[in-house]
Amino acid sequence: MKAGSNLEKVLESGKFAVTAEIGPPQSANPAPLTHHAKMLKGFAEAFNLTDNQTAVVRLSSIASAVIIMREGVEPVIQMTCRDRNRIALQSDLLGAAALGVKNVLCLTGDHQIFGNEKGAKNVFDFDSIVELQVFDQLRREGKQVGGEVIKDPPKAYLGCAENPFATPYEFRVSRLAKKVVAGADFCQTQAIFDMDMFEKWMDEVRSRGLDKKIHILAGVIPMKSAGAARYMKNKVPGMIVPNHIVDRMKNAKDPKEEGIKLCVEQIEHLKSVKGVHGVHIMAVAWEEMVPRIVEMAGLHPRPTVE
Amino acid sequence: MTDRRPKIVGFCCERHGMDAVVMAARSGKQSDASVRLVQVPCTGRVDGLHILKALEDGADAVFVLGCLEKNCYYDTGSIEGRKRVAYVKQMLSEAGIEKERVEMFNAASTNAWAYPEAVAKMVEVARKLGPIGGGERQ
Amino acid sequence: MIVAKRKPINEIAEMLAPYKKVTVVGCRSCVAICLAGGEKEVKMLVSALKVKNKKDGKKQQIEGFVVERQCEKEWIKEVEEKVLESDVTLSMACSLGAQTIGDMYPSHLTFPGLNTGMFGVPEEQGVWSEKCVGCGNCIIHTTGGICPIARCAKSMLNGPCGGSSNRKCEVNLEVDCAWAAIYDRLKIQNRLDLIDKVTPAKDWSTSHSGGRRVYVREDAKLTPHQKKGREGVQ
What we know:
Chain B is α/β, with parallel strands linked by helices. Chain B has helices at residues 16-26, 48-56, 77-95, 114-129; strands at 7-13, 34-40, 61-67, 102-107. Chain B has a single domain, classed as Rossmann fold, CATH 3.40.50. In chain B, helix 2 crosses helix 3. With 234 residues, chain C is an alpha/beta fold. Chain C is built from ten helices and seven strands. Chains in contact: A-C, B-C.
């Protein structure tokens, strides 16, 4: 065991894992986090706490992690390279580990132009792959990127994200391979709507044997409306939403129900794809639907692994 | 006697532009403005600096009259002219000066109405805005 | 070359407002090529400021000059008199030119007329784009001759990120994704193996992060004896 997290135990035991996301609030109020933690407890192995997602200032992911841990819920902290240099990233990894956080998702981070602090100076000392490599070395050898060897290195289960739907498509599996080499233990993918394309990507992943080296959790997003589908199709860079999905949402009598149904179908399908070791449910601002989706997809109760 | 008429400077190409001016003159149209016409080989030769200098030296409004864009004697000259006018307009806006004081017009050689219309438009602008910096015409 | 952009005229006018006598100095190097601060731009700015002063009923003496390379002291000597007899000098060079005048005449006011933007190249007439950020340790032999630090919005060393759509950058859909371009270039060069390897953390100490940089070539430097000799000649 690298960190001994619940997520690590489930994945390493070969069971199908579930992760979901909790968006920290745009305030200093911990109540929404506590509320979601209570509601979602037991419906996933661990919950991602986004790190100022889309560059909008929010309660910090590490603080959020500690708040949900008080409710007995396991966090995955997201750590982007946008706002912190190597000094701060390594320091925060030590701090998070000391607070008992065991799962860390390494991300380059959304550019600040998408957020509410457009005048910010970004950092990008690292990209996500360098971050993985540095964190991996720190946890294995206790060696900082600058060469200093520390006592009591952090324990961490390291994750990454990958987007099979961003260009150039031909390079996407190679990029996953680089993340494996850099030290990633698990990978949460961008939300999948185009199953054919995802399966093609998985074919290549398997043919290169990567599914044996990294646990892939397929990403899904339940949609509330046809508008949401159209928005993701047209406005979110690196996202592919096929027309038949937009149409299905558009023609639905009850779009919210349809969105849930669609999401459950997608999970059912993804469960059957060889090499997929779990799902990652990103119910953005719709966290209360996660228990229903997990139940409907036959993924409840969650396994316990010792 | 002081000339209180609006002061207009026009840069006019010697091809379709001047032909249109001559056509207008033959038709006997008169203007009550003081128009200083500067003949240039092509409106592509008009520099933003020429326009600014005219304003600096006392013009209330400046226009550029060239060939129709698809029928320019030098092919793309009047397109260049239009771009120069657009840039001067931008500079004037930045400086807080009415950009309407500068305009581009195009004419075919037989358009007897084109030149009087350009003058009339610039006179209207000059009357509305007055001399740059206000005050009476000296 | 260094690519700059003229400041808006109202901003320039506001800077210059308290002063009676203004000397504008342009530069015939980079900023002339990028149509920001060459002879033509100096003349047009001087004229526009005069028109503005006329409109505002303001008396101000403004004169324009251009030097060959404003970042070199020798060329500035040519306009020294004009600089020093003014109340303020407006530099229409990049910030290097403005700072060189400022450093030469510390008690004299020198203001910037341009916003210095980038190390860029003319892509086509009227279009300039950034291609280098001066990190001090060039790696483009490993990236198909395309700099990911300057041309990727997130300076990724192991890109492309997940926002690359249709080979365009998510930050500006008009701009090509640097890593899509690197991929394509390496593919035609048969060198894709170069980006299959993880590029480790970059040492930024050679960049501005390492502090202000001063490069010295000892063999080109004048010895104290040589310096004395030159002063004697002048």
